[in-house]
Amino acid sequence: MRLAWIAGAVISVTIGSATAAGAAEIRLAEQFSMGYLQFNVMKRDRLIEKYATQRGLKDFKVSWQRFNGPVAMNEALLSNSTDIVSGGVPGLITLWDKTQGTSFEVKGICALSSQPFLLNTANPDVKSIKDFTERDRIAVPSIKVSVQAVLLQMAAAAAYGDENYGKLDPLTVSMSPPDATIAMLGGAGGVNSVFSVPPFQFQQLQQKNIHTVLSSFDVLGPHTFTVAWTSARFRKDNPELYGAFLDAVKEATSIIAADPKGTAQSWINDSGSKLPLEMVTNVVTGPGVEWTMAPAATMKFAKFMRRVGTIKREPASWRDIFFPEIGGLNGS
Predict the structure, then answer these.
(1) Fewest beta carbons within 10 Å, which of 68, 114, 201, 218?
(2) Residue 153 and residue 219 in contact, taking contact as beta carbons nearer than 8 Å
(3) 167 with 97: CB under 8 angstroms?
């Protein structure tokens, strides 16, 4: 039975191209977790609509979609089923690498948040990643390419050497964070561990038999968790919509800082979550959590992925991965 508090905040907004005959459509995609609070605020306060109208657009539509993991989102972006997607940094880097020099180049728009995510387990014998065996199963949003999967590879490389970065990959299974939480708590499918996201990672830890093996900050230090990206074609063909989206993210980020409790309530309302407001507010303002458009540690991801061969080219700096509108921010 699905737990009541598992109703995830999974919104996908997509911004589509304007056509000569009809209205522009705004489509943007996000995943499960509280890493996309700007989207909740943008939806609640109709910020995209506000800034698109200020820029002179009169006939446009805002749509919302849902995806789990970067593979599905990147496929939707490449097939023109969506225009702006969001997720972990490795998903952006993977598509940036694959599309450079093509007619459909992809780059980042901006970061959304920096915060740690946790590898939790119900196996009392697992104290570090070296304790995992072939009997364990670790749920991640997408195997090998999600930010959780790549962080697990980075941890494995640190423990066993770069040549063994994929040592734990055979133990991973692809599941959405809510389903993974249910599976671990119920022992379904042999899943006894989850490299998760807020708020699900904290919900897991409410169970006495669950403990944390690793924080992503242990592996990488403070890093961007969520980021938005799109194609150069969309940015060129829809400059006013692109600008409206950036303006909306900027205002939404300020609103989160000024009113974390209100933002937490907005997430609860939007997701249908049964979590108490105090707990959600604590997640919004938790240790290591920063709602910011400035990317952090993106080059650490890129250098690792190039070193182990999961991408073919290494960007010279973080600015190579992002469009120039945020180039003046103090990123890394």
Answers:
(1) 218
(2) no
(3) no
State residue 32's pLDDT score: 66
Residues 6+ apart with CB under 8 A from 37: 112, 113, 252, 256, 263, 266, 267, 284, 291
Q: Which residues form the domain of 207?
A: 118-220
Distance of alpha carbon 164 from alpha carbon 167, whole angstroms? 5
What is the rounded distance in angstroms from the CA atom of residue 84 to the CA atom of residue 27?
Answer: 7
**Stretch 78-106: mean pLDDT, rounded?**
91
Token pair of 284, please?
A: 């919004």
CB 256 within 8 A of CB 291: yes
Question: How far is the C-alpha of 42 from the C-alpha of 38, rounded, in Å?
Answer: 6
Average pLDDT on 142-155 reads 93
Least confident of 115-119, 148-152, 173-177: 173-177
Do 122 and 109 share a structural domain?
A: no
3 state SS of 214: strand
Check: CB of residue 104 under 8 Å from CB of residue 249.
no
Domain count, the chain: 2
In which band, very low, low, confident or very high, does the pLDDT at 29 lie, cut at 50, 70 and 90?
confident
> Which pair of structure tokens corresponds to residue 162?
């770069």
- Asked whether residue 331 is assigned to any structural domain, the reply reads no
Count the helix, strand and coil residues of the chain and give each as a percent rounded to the nearest 5: 45, 20, 40
Which tops the pLDDT comparison, 317 or 103?
317
Is the pLDDT at 17 greater than 50, yes or no? Answer: no
Mean pLDDT of the chain: 88
Based on the fold, state whether residues 143 and 211 are members of the same structural domain.
yes
Q: Report the side by side order of strands in the sheet with 193-195.
A: 172-174, 138-140, 193-195, 118-121, 211-215
This prediction has a pTM of 0.88
Task: In whole angstroms, give the CA distance from residue 277 to residue 285.
Answer: 12
pLDDT at 26: 77
Tell me how far apart the alpha carbons of residues 280 and 261 are, in angstroms, rounded to a whole number: 8
Mean pLDDT over 255-259 rounds to: 97
For residue 320, give Cα distances in angstroms to 90, 138, 324.
14, 33, 9
